[in-house]
Amino acid sequence: PTSGATAAGRSGNGDAFTMSTRLRDLIRSVRACKTAAEERALVAKESAGIRASLKDAESHFSHRNVAKLMYLHMLGYPTHWGQMECVTLIARASFPEKRIGYLGLMVLLDERQEVTMMVTNTIKNDLKHRNHFIAGLALCTLGNICTAEMARDVAPEVASLLHSKNSYVRKKAALCSVRIVKKVPDLADEFVPGTSELLSDRHHGVLLCAVTLALELCVLDQVHVTHFRKHVPVLVKILMSLIRAGYSAEHDVGGHADPFLQVKLLQLLAKLGAGDADASDAMSDVLANVASNTDGSKNAGNAILYEAVNAIIGTESVGGLRVLAVNILGRFLGNKDNNIRYVALNTLAKVVAVDTQAVQRHRHTIVDCVKDSDVTIRRSALQLVYALVNDSNVETLAKELLDYLGVADVEFKSDLTRRIAQLITKYAPDRRWHVDTTVELLIKGGSYVAEEEARDFIVLITNSPELQGYAGRALFRAAFESEQHSNRFQLSAVAAWVLGEYGDAVVAQSTRLQGEVHTVVAEADVVKLLESILGDYHAPTAVKQVAITALAKLGTRFKTQTGAVRGAMGKVGTSANVELQQRASEFCGIFDRGPALAVPLMERLPPFVMKSKEALHGVAGRGKHEGTAVHSAPGGGGGGTAGGVGDL
Questions:
Q1: Confidence check: pLDDT of 542 > 80
Q2: Which of 101, 126, 410, 491 allows an S-S link to 90, with CB 3.0 to 4.6 Å?
Q3: Would you state the pLDDT for residue 611?
Q4: Integer CA distances (angstroms), 74 to 50, 98, 411, in order
Q5: DSSP per position, 425-449
Q6: Cβ(116)–Cβ(83) under 8 Å?
Q7: pLDDT range class, residue 634, cuts 50, 70, 90
Q8: Is 253 in a helix, a strand, or coil?
Q9: 436, exposed or middle or buried, with CB in 10 Å at 0-12, 13-18, 19+?
Q10: C-alpha distances in angstroms, 445 versus 406, 416, 419, 496?
């Protein structure tokens, strides 16, 4: 309350208060304001006083006014009317005034302001100033607000400062050069000689800035990469000295000697070693040293290890070094910090394309990450698991993915079912396993299984005569056990289609395979299952259309169930759905005209044409239960691939 009263009292003195108050007094006054309206009133009065002061060309408070303007700018109040005072201050000879002026330029202006064009000449003069602190101020300002036009004007001066005798100036000149080459890439060649010289500097700050500049030059042009490759031995020597360096209070962070410089050196080595065997060989020893001797118990060490891994992966490293890098990423996966695990998963995704076998060793840890509570970890782990699947591990990983599908979040299920279906199709060891796994996918995927996957499965069954009865029984069991689940209509549609086409093979004992789950399926059981689908009020119309067509086909093959089929048709004939009612009536009319018409019309469809043999990735001709080639459907009665469930 006392400070608030004091502030209010001071505010009441008008311009006198404004002219004499320091920045700290203004800050206290603003903090003492109890309401937003009171603060706005104080800022308005202060702004008016600053405007009045700025009109006085001989004012001794210009630097104080600009400091207060910067504070008001940070509070969110408009200060554009005071920007010209910054231009005035940097033109003065006094260092304190120049310092505030340059700071105001960086805070109050950006490169889009036209005012920046008015300070170019002053900055050029200050770059040549004998006082290295003033030259440093000019370099800092250029590094923050330099435009393309300014960059072209000051590039020669900045490039010459890279050779300055003062390490303070060399460091700031290198950072300013980064901004210049980003704004005007054509000027990059002017900075290459100076950068090469700075890479041998003994000052850590200068060296860090020089490596940053070299990295930027390498990104801009491959020619510069070739130029800087001759400095690889020097960079390796510097990095090795950092690894072996003892404790230094000036550079130690978390027990590591200048980790910022180590990280930048590793990034530059990765860039220089990419695609060059000689450069990669020259840096392999130091990369192995960094990977082996860096302690990963703290964040600084993890940052160094991560960049070392990227360097190993990005260069032409030997296999043993890549295995070491992958093992480091494997340790990252066991870290409690989700950020470290996330970068490990993303990096492993890059390594898979280079050395799949090394990543396979950490397969179990990666699969465990799929069940993590963090959604970003789960998503990254899933992408990596997809990349890890091959012919030798598809059975194990498909089971893991299917187990996860049962508990996965809703937003993952659609993509997950699609990916699993693709992996099954691509890497299935034999058709029997393909059938078993797809049935499980239909059960666990439910409504998230797309029609395309269901059609592909049907195409496979039509082209596998030896598995038609086996597939039908597997689908019968799955559909029978799933009657209480309202989201498995894709399973019901596929089961109805297969039972309608191959119901006689499903009930036949002769079609049983060795090791098959013993299931006795009677003709009546098949008819009852199809009736239950038709009677399910929640079932989509498309699924019921498939079921009624299946019943009609079975009516000509199950002689003992003709009456039950006709009874089911009669019930559907009273349906409120016009499409179902019409189908039931037409099928009843066909049956009324006798077997001579019904049997030919209800015969099996010929095998559907597969999209391509590659679609099954060599499934045809492999495994025990394979021997039927892909057939084309004769004529036009069943040719082409299967349509949607509503068309089958």
A1: yes
A2: 101
A3: 64
A4: 16, 20, 41
A5: HHH-SSHHHHHHHHHHHHHHHGGGS
A6: no
A7: very low
A8: strand
A9: middle
A10: 7, 9, 11, 18
